[in-house]
Prior knowledge:
mainly alpha, 5 helices
Amino acid sequence: xxxxxxxxxxxxxETCVDARRFSHAMKYYTQLFDRSQxxxxxxxxxxxxxxxxxxxxxxxxxxxxMQTKKLEMALRFVxxxxxxxxxxxxxxxxxxxxxxxxxxxLRAKDDK
Length: 112
């Protein structure tokens, strides 16, 4: 996939989030995720960030199960990144995603 296409999809998704058009944003982020899967090499951190954004949309839609699922998937992508040049970025993103998962689990406990 051409980088311009991926960048455009991300911009469209962000614009839709800003406009609170979450179903449209979900569509664009999902296309971005799917299309960037075919890149070689796969940018695991970028994939994780996209999944994290998809998870946040599920949160806005009050679908906590899917939000948790996407965050767990994002965490697996973060942990797949083995580049020595990206250790700090990986650790920061992993910590952020784990924090979001902890908050979701606490929220789920409170709802019970």
